[in-house]
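Q: How would the structure tokens look for this protein?
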Amino acid sequence: MTPDWLDKKEYPFESKYIQLEAGKMHYVDEGEGPPIVMIHGTPVWSFLYRNLIKILRKKYRCIAMDMIGFGLSDKPEGWSYKPRAHAVNFEQLMEHLQLTDVTLLVHDFGAPIGFAYAINHPEKVKNIVMLNSWTWSLSKHQTFTGTSKYLVGPLGKFLHSKLNVSALTLINELFEGEEKMPEPIRQHYVNALGNPDDQVGKLACARELIGITRWYDELWKERNKIQNIPTLILWGERDKLIKIEALQCWKKFFHECYVIPFEDSGHFLQEENAEEIASYVSNFVKEENKKRELMHH
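A: Here is the predicted structure in token form.
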């Protein structure tokens, strides 16, 4: 099952699969301890979390899936790819794993998918860790015209402007400024999209952003169910896609949140700052556990 291009030294995890209606979904499940579930965004996959998992699996159970259409998961032609459908798949994986006391770690377009789960099962989600993610179309400073009203947020606009370029170009532009990224690593993102010469319009990441405003509206109305979950926000301040205003919105959204800015990093903190992120996450989970124990005594 493992493709030839995957470097097992770089990504030394056992591949697991769950059979869903849409196809086979790939995930990794490493280590033991309190579960940390990592949700990727566009157009990446669980590979983005590899260095975090290597560190955190010593004390935690780390789970990271590839959404259908991404990474090592199936890429079915006729499937919906709307975030609502990804959220249903994630729900099925969580049901399959039967986890409790979960720390959800979300990034980018993974945020609404994780939050949809948390809204449905607030009793199972103990902590949230959020990396650069956009606020939904409901943050007032985004107005849409014509076709772009279906494309949510800056990522949508960015992808829309790239529909006719190749997957390779898309990856290079998204990771622009990541000069330190070695070519073999970049190739893992390119190859995971399927055919690197395919135009972006054919990729899961471009198809998934259409017509989701209503779903976001539904989530937004239910947000009070998750606003009290303790949240750690790690934010790369040089993000070209997501403006700092989004961070201000998230600060207002969560009642108890800690923000750690990374001044010199961009959208993909997991590539640049895995060690720091791992220690922040680990300390945060430990502190929250201590607080809960004190409250119960």
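The radius of gyration is 18 Å.

The first strand starts at residue 16 and ends at 19.

Upvote if useful.
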